[in-house]
Each structure stands twice: as structure tokens, then as C-alpha cells.
Write a structure and sequence with these properties.
The protein has 166 residues and is mainly α. It is built from 7 helices and 4 strands.
């Protein structure tokens, strides 16, 4: 068993990516983003996979630019343009944060809908704010990738924007 209460096999599982972006570990999502251990394995894997797809779709132009520049993977880029903090490559960590944040946003909403204890009612009331926070975290990272690699492209840094017409 891991510290999350999930069997080690579950937490050790990786979600395979498209070959360009780094693979993601379910254990990182569970441990670093405090995903409730009550979730079934399939719910966690599906949430992470859907978040990965959504982030990858938003970063399609960034990936195309890097491939056009001769980099087969993000790791190939960071090898020739290292930017490390704490022994970790900044761009790889930013990418993971974008995906894990988006996964957490989606999974938080599911937790409030399946858990009917009194504390879950409070979570359901606060859930929209938490979902917005984690979606904004993900979107800010996506915007940072665009700022670095496609500065002429305008990418909002907030996922939740409201426009009011007067």
C-alpha cells in the first residue's frame, strides 16, 4: 500500500503520452495534488487521461513549432536548452503541472457529486471556486508555453474569463 491508501500497483502506473510530451504518473497526481483516495482506479486514470488530451490539444501549435525546429520531444528541447530548478527541467514540470491541475479540476467536481456526507455539501458549494482555480493554474502554464515559443499568438492566461457587454 502507498501513503494514499491505494495499492502500490495503482499508484505506480504511468499514463503514456504521445511521445513528444512527458509521461505522467498517477502517483504524482495522487500525492502532489491531494486527490482523494476514495476514487476508483478507473476514475483517476480517466480524469488524468482526459486532462492530458485537453492540454495536448491546446499545446498543438507549440509542439508543431518545436518539431519544426528539429526537436522530436520536449526532452530533446530541454537537453539543448536546459533550464533546471531543484534538479528538474522547468518546462517538463510546467507541462505536468498543467495536466495535473486540469485533472484535479475535473476530479474535484466528481468527488462532490459522489460523496453525500455533510462535508461534501460544503465541498459542492465551494467546488466551482476550486475548479476555477485549478483550471486557471493549467491555463496559465499553457499561456506560458505560448509566450515562450509563439509570442505572437495570444493565449489567455485564465481559463475562466467573463466578458460583459454594455
Amino acid at each position: 500500500m502507498s501513503l494514499t491508501g491505494k495499492p502500490a500497483l495503482t499508484t505506480a502506473a504511468a499514463v503514456t503520452n504521445d511521445g513528444f510530451w512527458p509521461e505522467l504518473a498517477i502517483a504524482d497526481l495522487l500525492n502532489n495534488y491531494r486527490i482523494p483516495s476514495e476514487y476508483a482506479d478507473g476514475v483517476i486514470t480517466t480524469g488524468l487521461t482526459l486532462a492530458l488530451i485537453q492540454v495536448n490539444l491546446q499545446l498543438t501549435k507549440v509542439k508543431a513549432k518545436l518539431v519544426l525546429d528539429g526537436y522530436a520531444t520536449l526532452a530533446a528541447y530541454t537537453t539543448t536548452h536546459p533550464e533546471a530548478l531543484g534538479g528538474k527541467q522547468v518546462l517538463a514540470e510546467l507541462y505536468k503541472h498543467a495536466v495535473y491541475s486540469r485533472a484535479k479540476a475535473g476530479l474535484l467536481m466528481q468527488f462532490a457529486s459522489v460523496n453525500r456526507r455533510p462535508q461534501a455539501e460544503n465541498q459542492a458549494k465551494e467546488g466551482d471556486d476550486m475548479e476555477s482555480h485549478w483550471l486557471d493554474e493549467s491555463q496559465a502554464v499553457i499561456a506560458e508555453f505560448y509566450r515562450r515559443f509563439l509570442p505572437a499568438e495570444v493565449m489567455p492566461s485564465k481559463a475562466n474569463t467573463l466578458a460583459v457587454l454594455i
